[in-house]
Structure prediction request, 185 residues.
Amino acid sequence: MSDMSANIGGAGLDRLTVMQGEAHASADPKVEMSTVLGSCVATCLFDPLARIGGMNHFLLAEPPSNRSRESFDEHYGLFLMELLINKMLGLGAIKSRLKARVYGGANLNPAMRPIGTANAEFARKFLENEGIPVGFEDLGGRAARRVHFMPASGMVRCRTAPTESVPMDKPLVRPQSASGDVELF
Prediction:
């Protein structure tokens, strides 16, 4: 087995940014998916036998109770979780083999409603109800995250932005050095 950690963020990759309201799946070993998260949540799913993976990025967990569940909106986790699973099944993944890693759900501003916490709880509950085990999660806190995912190998790297010295009224700046770990399913 080769050391794929050099490929995370490496040259020669087809980079795909997963924006809010999107879900993508791939079996191509040259594809790297990435996203930036605050209170949003990204779920990375992986079928290790089929070597198919995918990532979504949702803004809110579920539509308000006064809204019809049949009128799906791409910003809700309820829609994007189903969409991600279906895209992966369409590529040949088997649902019973799927494994999950979940990122985001931060509450960046403590003065605001804890949307990140609600998103994280929704993702955990949805995956539990679907019988998809969560192998790793990096949820909550006050830090923004950047997630890189290699869907064909299941490798993930998550970087966290510093929070302790950043005033809430000042924009975040890119750190001189970033820390993060590569995680395998």
